[in-house]
Specification:
This protein is of the alpha+beta class. It has two domains: 189 residues, Jelly Rolls (Sandwich); 106 residues, Arc Repressor Mutant, subunit A (Orthogonal Bundle). 40% of the residues lie in helices and 21% in strands. The chain has twelve helices and eleven strands. A seven-stranded mixed β-sheet has the order 8-9-1-10-3-6-11. Strands 2-7-4-5 form a four-stranded antiparallel β-sheet, with no helix packed on it. The longest helix is centred in the middle third of the chain and has 22 residues.
């Protein structure tokens, strides 16, 4: 595993699955509204062809999406998608495909849109981690400046994935639903990777991971969270002074390195506590706590419940 493969570590810790729900083929004018998602759900949209405007009524912010763009709503915000013309949209027709997703269309004669809509599911309690470390709206370019000719290019895995999703969602072939849901899960990983590698990586974990000088510290915390990391240790890995390291980390993440380390440890602990044979003492030790009292205090502070309460809740849900 590469030194900076923080994303693989994160997604081993957090279970994320996905589901395609709707393929929209509209002619302008059109407008669709998505209500706020449940706490553990992340809506997503992939523009295959055409153009769309996404609007967050809560913040008043709007973003324009074009062919190849992917947008995720990590906080589950309610939002509106429309063609941007301001004209009153006509009715839409929905029909259920045999493979499990829905086709939605209208009779609009204006600019044509082809868009995939679905959602990711983050297993509790890790949805809190996602909300804390990812932006409200995450936009990613799936196709580079060469346009449609680059879709499917092996050098652009995100574009290749979207091309396969487009092909699979265009028909009702056997296995299509299972394939699309598996591809949706991969879409989450590739979108986060692409966003972290972008020159305009959004504030939070993605901007932090894309900072080459801080990468050794992030990698170390994800790879060996039980180690007794101190700020001087982490700063030394990045060849920085303690003060410089703290300043850069806070600037990119919006919180301290110790906050991130604690969140990683508590997320791993939540997974371990699901195992009936694992004692609280053993779990505390496995994530770097020699004092069970300190572990219980940290877990309760981060998760909003004691380790015992979380264990009971998790086991009742299985």
């Amino acid at each position: 595993m590469s030194q900076v493969d923080w994303l693989s570590h994160l997604l081993r810790m957090i279970t994320v699955t996905g589901r395609l729900e709707v393929r929209c083929t509209y002619g302008a004018p059109w407008r669709v509204t998505w209500d706020r998602a449940a706490a553990h759900e992340i809506p997503y949209h992939v523009v295959l062809k055409g153009r769309a405007v996404i609007e967050d009524p809560g913040t008043g912010k709007t973003y324009e999406l074009v062919s190849g763009d992917i947008v995720l709503l990590p906080h589950g915000s309610g939002h509106v998608l429309h063609d941007g013309s301001g004209y009153k949209p006509g009715p839409t027709r929905n029909r259920q495909g045999s493979s499990g997703w829905m086709f939605s269309e209208n009779d609009g004669k204006g600019e044509q849109l082809d868009m995939l809509c679905g959602r990711f599911f983050v297993e509790p309690p890790h949805d809190r981690l996602i909300r804390d470390y990812l932006p409200t709206t995450l936009m990613v370019r799936g196709v580079d400046s060469r346009g449609d000719d680059s879709v499917g290019d092996a050098s652009n895995p995100l574009a290749s994935l979207v091309a396969v999703m487009r092909s699979e969602s265009a028909n009702d072939k056997p296995g299509g639903y299972a394939i699309l849901n598996a591809l949706t899960s991969a879409l989450f990983t590739l979108a986060l990777r692409a966003a972290s590698e972008s020159e305009q990586a959004p504030p939070g974990l993605l901007a932090l991971a894309g900072h080459p000088r801080l990468a050794p510290a992030i990698s170390a915390m994800f790879a060996d969270p039980a180690h007794s990391w101190s700020l001087p240790d982490l700063a030394g890995l990045c060849s920085m002074s303690r003060a410089t390291f703290m300043r850069h980390f806070q600037d990119k993440l919006g919180r301290s390195a110790i906050d991130l380390l604690t969140d990683i440890r508590m997320s791993l602990a939540a997974n371990e506590l699901k195992k009936p044979a694992a004692t609280t003492e053993a779990v505390a030790d496995s994530v770097g706590y020699r004092s069970v009292t300190s572990f219980r205090r940290a877990f309760t502070d981060k998760m909003g419940m004691t380790p015992g309460q979380w264990r009971r809740l998790a086991l009742e849900g299985e």
